Fold these 2 entries.
Entry 1:
Amino acid sequence: MDEPLPDHCRCLVSAAATGPSPSPGSSWVPDGVPCPDSFVLVYDLARPTLRFCRIRGGDGARWVSQTYDLGLHEVPGKEPTQRAIGDMAAVQGAFFYLESRDALGGLVVSLADGPEPRLEPVTFHASLPKLARDAEQTVTKAYLLESDKRLFLVCLFFIGCTLERIEDVGAYVFDFTEEEWCRVSDIGDAAFLLGPGGFAASCPAARHGLKRGCVYFAWDFLGDGNDVDFHIFDLKEGTREVARPNQDIPALNIEPFWLVPVLP
């Protein structure tokens, strides 16, 4: 990259789309846009700026910058700022993010026009899942991730505004035909790992000594570095437990985080 990385950014790698689209008879790729190659994407968390590059592209492997418009982020008493994507997941050659509570956004790399690739936006009108039972006030913390070439959403439903009581945990797979989130209780041998800052990942459970079909959640709620527990939610059984790391850790000096193994 011929310029420094943004101070606050994240990186994703998207493999080329192979085989059928995630939902039979449908595709997120707009008309006239060919299946993309594999790309690496760096997105700025503070500004609506994207940088992406073709992997193993030979002489054509150069970084391309592109901006987008999600409107303004307005806070009372402060100057409005441009909204930036906070969390994104790469699935089958496309990049997905939560555009709003009622829309899922997608970015597809197009090689159709011009000498440089471009990210073409796609929007799906899909409302964020809600807590099924009645409650006076709830907060939903949503995580996007890829698992088994499918797009998943994990929602943590909190009662009140303190983020101290998790009322429910739900996993949803996106149906591209109906444009809706469908709740699932069986994610196979996968384990979903959730952390601070919207981090979410999937990995094989049995291979790494984890419980299959579970959501692992580690986050220091109070921000004081003393919460070393992590929560395990069994999606099929509907049970939950709190565990601690095996090591003798008296206190944390940073936010807890996951290290995810990557196969060659």
Note: The chain has a mean pLDDT of 82.
Entry 2:
Amino acid sequence: MKYQYVRLSVAPMMDWTDRHCRFFHRQLTSRALLYTEMVVADAVIHGARERLLGFSPQEHPIALQLGGSDPVKLAEAARVGEAFGYDEINLNVGCPSDRVQSGTFGACLMKTPALVADCTAAMKAAVKIPVTVKCRIGVDEQDPEPALDALADGVFEAGADALWVHARKAWLEGLSPKENRDIPPLDYDRVYRLKAKNPNRFIGINGGIQTLDESSRHLEHVDGVMLGRAAYHTPGVLIDADAALYGDAARDFDFAALIETMADYAGRHIAEGGRLGHVTRHMVGLFHGMPGARRFRQILSTDATRPGAGPDVLRQASAEIDFERASQAA
């Protein structure tokens, strides 16, 4: 995977971007780079690898995001990820949750850029696939100007292939992880300045981006755009992404075929011991703003979560939608 061709990615989101979510998103966009949830390096090394790292071949291109602060462990986890077939390994230097801080990784690593560089160098030496970093513009009382420059300089000197920047500070004390996604003000210009200072390095932007039009405007200043909650809560935004951001031919999207693909996928998951709700919980916002969407959501939020629910529940929910009108809206 050549990083200059990554114009859109879907952010790694804890408890959200699991393998079922990624399979669903891949039906909407063939181009966007998809990320796993963050997986702790120790878990990769010592845990149930297939459960933690398994994915469907259709999910490519796909990146594994790791959490950790020990270069040796991160290098070993990166090797495991490469052997599993991931297209990229990403280091989390942006998550502000308490459980991440207690493990001395995530956003608190913004305070130790030399350690982040060491981790990046170790991972880069361990694998042949791209190694990237996702960070904030700073944490707590840090001045984002020198803080972000120090982090970027260190990881690029260590060989990082890309830096994705969430254009907000993280406050490690006083704000919850949820509040850290909304309260610290966005500073897109700070990320633009970083790109201007690093014209030959890949800089991607994340944070509060809602639409493809916004994404296109950001791409006038940076190399890539990362969508998070917008892609999850209103996944239909991904349907036109390949045409809008990559220049692919526009298409008439076949929602009926999508539902059948997801019903078949859910059936296989159920046959392996899973539940329908594991799959359909990621699809609730698919028809956002369209006639019948409310009833679609209700069925997926109630009937699909009941023990023994099968793929026909998804088909029943989709019967509330006029696919022809939905395709026109998409």
Note: The CA atoms of residues 64 and 84 lie 10 Å apart.
